[in-house]
Amino acid sequence: MRTRVNGATHDVAERGGRRGTMTKKKLASETGTAGAVDFTGVQANLVDYPPGAAIFLQGNEATSVMYVEEGTVRLSVLSQGGKEAVIAMLERTHFFGEGCLVGQPYRMATATAVGRCTIVVVEKAEMVRQLHARPVFAEHFLRHMLTRNIRIEEDLIDQLFNSSEKRLARTLLLLARYGEPEASRRVLPKVSQETLAEMVGTTRSRVNFFMNKFRKLGFIEYNGNVKVNDSLLGVLLRD
């Protein structure tokens, strides 16, 4: 399904998920939020999605680039055999859906709102125009793409050479935004053990086993949410 607001269209879920609603509010860039992209002058729409809503589905037409203004977005891929794999958990200040800029006609993954999300939607033509006209905006987007490319390479190496225990430890550290200059928190976004298993490439029972092990060793804490301690890094560094 497509919806049109102020002359611009955006993707919404065609099946399996609740539709997002257009809102009028200040962007993080307008309120000076650290790390936010400056969308001043960009023709964009803000869309609110409730928890569990499909932002777009694998196979939908790809016509826009999106940006996480608030909340967490899960990207997943479904194989022809029905097996699902979670390929990314995106939080505030992350772009997604950028494949349309290089001629990708359809969405290659499904994007789902983990909790309540506010998404900035920029149509392809407008995004291309802004990238050509605004060097600072283009630089920020390029930095995002390079960071994403490095992350993909690291994920591949992780899958090829590390044990499931180390892969889980790395996933938890990434979700806690370990090492990011402005990330003072170490609390994970709400994510189930099933989702962690899909991200790591193992079973839920193995994730449960290692999570209990990490908790007993003091690497993580359970208190309604999962808090990751810096000591978890030791799992990755040991031989």
Question: Can you put this structure into words, describing what you see?
Answer:
There is one protein chain. This protein is 31% helix and 25% strand. It has six helices and 13 strands. α1 (124-133) packs across α2 (135-161), α3 (164-175) crosses α4 (193-200) and α4 (193-200) packs across α5 (204-216). The longest helix is centred in the middle third of the chain and has 27 residues, at 135-161. It starts with a strand and ends with a helix.
Main attributes?
239 residues; alpha+beta; Jelly Rolls; Arc Repressor Mutant, subunit A; 2 domains; four-stranded antiparallel beta sheet; globular; disordered N terminus
How would you sum up this structure in a few lines?
This protein has six helices and 13 strands.
SSE layout and pairings?
Elements (H helix, E strand, L loop, with lengths): L1 E4 L2 E4 L9 E3 L21 E5 L4 E3 L7 E7 L2 E6 L5 E7 L4 E2 L13 E4 L3 E7 H10 L1 H27 L2 H12 L17 H8 L3 H13 L3 E4 L1 E4 L4 H5 L2
Antiparallel strand pairs: 1-2, 3-4, 4-11, 5-10, 6-9, 6-11, 7-8, 7-10, 12-13
Helix pairs in contact: 1-2, 3-4, 4-5
Radius of gyration: 18 Å
* Total beta-strand segments: 13
CATH topology of the largest domain: Jelly Rolls
- Largest β-sheet summary: 5 strands, antiparallel
Chain-averaged pLDDT: 82
What is the CATH superfamily classification of the largest domain?
A: Jelly Rolls
Give, in order, the helices and strands. Answer: EEEEEEEEEEEHHHHHEEH
Number of DSSP helical runs = 6
Helical residue percent band: 25-40%
Strand content: 25-35%
| Low-pLDDT sequence parts | 1-25
Structural class: alpha+beta
**What assembly state would you assign to the polypeptide chains in this entry?**
single chain
Query: How far apart are the first and last residues' alpha carbons, in Å?
Result: 51 Å
